[in-house]
């Protein structure tokens, strides 16, 4: 609607947006969209970070629980007397022997004969190792992969060197004087996230008293626990 005043035509309302107004509106929209995208990316990154940390916590706790359960049973032979050789290890592997599930048959009070069938039967010998980032439990040559993301493992052996049923020191395998005097084992596990690109910069970590700067962007965390060999404390 318009009115004439002399030879001039005056519009009573605006008919549209100017090019400058449209450009300003588009620019504002772009800034808002960038803000929304950045918020989404931050939320996604936070979720991935928390999810990875939760999974690492679960993996570390579960690994220690599984290994610790078998360590506590090391040297258990029911009412029979155990003999030597129930525990042997290196810094990164450990071999445990016991009647983990079934109680061996035989006369109570007699010494375990490790050539007998029950000693070689299922669940009598367990070996823990790390293979391609997976915690592996070998039971009489039957491999079972248990937990992913286990980058490294270390065993320290608590030896009673003076016969007072107390650990004098935790040492590496090559420093053990007598394996029959080891009454406790400390397990240290390095867990790494399954996802990469979780950190802005490669994060250094301390394991086995050595600080390492990785080339990737994984998260890493060290878990440790000490387990008494109950059947050697009797």
Structure description:
The protein starts with a strand and ends in a 6-residue tail after the last strand. The protein has a five-stranded antiparallel β-sheet, with helices on one face. Helix content is 25%, strand content 32%. A hairpin with a 2-residue loop joins β11 and β12. The chain is an alpha+beta fold and 234 residues long.
Q: In this structure, how is the largest beta sheet organized? A: 5 strands, antiparallel
User: How do the strands of the widest beta sheet line up side by side?
Assistant: 3-4-5-6-7
Radius of gyration: 33 Å
Strand content: 25-35%
How far from one another are the termini?
A: 105 Å
According to DSSP, the number of beta strands is 13
Q: Report helical residue fraction.
A: 25-40%
Calculate the mean pLDDT score and round it: 83
Class inferred from helices and paired strands: alpha+beta
Poorly predicted runs? none
Task: Please provide a brief summary of the model.
The chain has helices at 19-73, 117-120; strands at residues 2-5, 8-11, 87-89, 94-97, 125-131, 134-139, 142-148, 150-159, 169-171, 182-192, 205-207, 210-212, 220-228.
List keywords for this structure.
2 helices, alpha+beta, 234 residues, 25% helix, four-stranded antiparallel β-sheet
Describe how the helices and strands are arranged.
Elements: E1 2-5, E2 8-11, H1 19-73, E3 87-89, E4 94-97, H2 117-120, E5 125-131, E6 134-139, E7 142-148, E8 150-159, E9 169-171, E10 182-192, E11 205-207, E12 210-212, E13 220-228
Antiparallel strand pairs: 1-2, 3-4, 4-5, 5-6, 6-7, 8-9, 8-10, 10-13, 11-12
